[in-house]
Amino acid sequence: MIDLHAHTTCSDGTETPRQLVNNAIIHGLSVLAITDHDSIAGWQEASSAVRGNLSLVPGAEISCLTLDGISVHMLGLLFDASNAQMLRMLDETRDSRIPRMVKMVELLNAGGYDITMEDIESVMPTGATLGRPHLADALVAKKFISSRDEAFKGLLNNDSEYYVSHMAPTPEVAIAQIRSAGGVAVIAHPFASHRGETLDTSNFDSLVAAGLNGIEVDHRDHSTSERAALRAIAKDLDLVITGSSDYHGTGKLNLLGENSTDPGEWTRLESLANARRVVKL
Q1: 184-215 pLDDT, tens digit each
Q2: Do residues 22 and 72 make contact, with C-beta atoms less than 8 angstroms apart?
Q3: How many helices (H) and strands (E) does the chain have?
Q4: Residue 179's pLDDT band (boundaries 50, 70, 90)?
Q5: 97-153 has which CATH code?
Q6: CA distance 114 to 4
Q7: 156, 163 in Cβ contact below 8 A?
Q8: Mean pLDDT, rounded, for 56-85
């Protein structure tokens, strides 16, 4: 199995990088991508845990906003971790998460939910990239909701009155930077309509022009019809088709390896990076 989208405690997952790698080995994965939100902090620990037949793909999930305010997530895989411009983009995107969270807390307080930044910080692993899942965990701890999954279906959904977007690069800028750093760019769950407003077919032309390499088609948040539409778009635009779990550990229903990428598609995607950066024993 090839899973190209998973998170650790270095962003909003519940397993450390080492635990994630161990879990992947237990579940028989052959390829695993570590894609923490706007962070590469878990790469070293994950790489040191690789053994057996597992190959580790270093990456990050980059938070983006279109010019008309649609939230888009871009998977950057196999890029050069020493690229200064890439690191700057990740840093700036992470930094913007703090004022965004402060505003969401203010909105929740006004709505009758007694939650503080201190509550959120108390449930965050050390060094994690601040995100809505940590706010969800704080809401669970205070018994306002029962799980992360419930939070993302309600209070913290993109269409919720409590949702606030944050400063982020456009998808085109993120793609161009990933490619400039030698990596490959795959748009994550682009038609996940229950998360909020999504892209439409016409948006992909500018993404391809910027250097997009692939589309995450097989994802829990895509319906059968959404998968079919994305598969058709990918074939029409000659883009790599991927499938992945978007695994976060406990609190979300996603299971490691529940969707997989075809080995041929993965071989094609890896060949588009400017260097071979997969970590093997």
Answers
A1: 999 999 998 777 668 888 899 999 999 999 99
A2: no
A3: 11, 7
A4: very high
A5: 1.10.150.650
A6: 37
A7: yes
A8: 95
Between CA 193 and CA 251 the distance in angstroms is: 21
Give the distance, in angstroms, between the CA of residue 232 and the centroid of all CA atoms in the same chain.
23
For position 159, what pLDDT does the model report? 87
What pLDDT, on the 0 to 100 scale, is given for residue 158? Answer: 86
d(CA 257, CA 5): 9
- Domain range annotation of the chain: 2-95+167-271, 97-153
**Topology of the domain covering 2-95+167-271:** TIM Barrel (3.20.20)
Burial classification of residue 12, based on how many CB atoms lie within 10 Å of its CB (0-12 exposed, 13-18 middle, 19 or more buried): buried
Which residue has 């990050």 as its token pair? Answer: 60
Length of the chain: 281
Tell me how far CA of residue 70 lies from CA of 104, 122, 195, 221, in angstroms: 18, 30, 11, 17
Q: How far apart are CA 185 and CA 211, in angstroms?
A: 8
The per-residue pLDDT for range 71-122, each reduced to its tens digit, is: 899 999 999 999 999 999 999 999 998 999 999 999 999 999 999 999 999 9
Tokens of 139: 């809401």
Q: Are strands 55-65 and 184-188 parallel, antiparallel or unpaired?
A: unpaired
CB 4 within 8 A of CB 29: no
Can 2-95+167-271 and 97-153 be said to share one CATH topology?
A: no
